[in-house]
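Before our next group meeting I need something from you. Please put the record directly below this note.
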Amino acid sequence: MTLTVRLPDRIEQELAEYCVKHRVNKSEAVKRALMDLLAANAGKPGAYDLGKDLFGAHTDAEPVEDIARHTKRLLRERFRGGRGAARKGARAK
């Protein structure tokens, strides 16, 4: 596989110095760097794995209503503490 990468001048110079010092060509140096990078991340869990127990209810049950269609009403009920409970107290002021 061929891959073309544009490097800033400073990095290109450092890569050239590394290659001379370690007696490798640029392709080999880049391959080694990529292998090290990928190996460092291989054993680490992903974002989903780290937080999957925090993402909400884990159930296969069918929803009782269409949440997307009733988002405004459900949010109002949630913030007011249930159906109509807060309305009576808010109007009494």
